[in-house]
Amino acid sequence: PVPENHHWLLIHSEILRGIVYGADKVVCTDEAVIDIITWAVTPYLEGKGTAEDAAREIQSRMSIYLAEQA
Prior knowledge:
Elements: H1 6-22, H2 31-45, H3 51-69
Helix pairs in contact: 2-3
């Protein structure tokens, strides 16, 4: 079944894709951070998760990563 907010999700995913693919430089050069973000955002961009799920995963994994770096 198609979620009720399917149209909204498509619009926002296209906006996010435009931002990501339109970037002309990487500000963060920490490969671990880039890997965490890529891993968490991919399901959202593929329509298999929500932006909230991606944000939650990034927050959780970054908290762990930063704690390990301390």
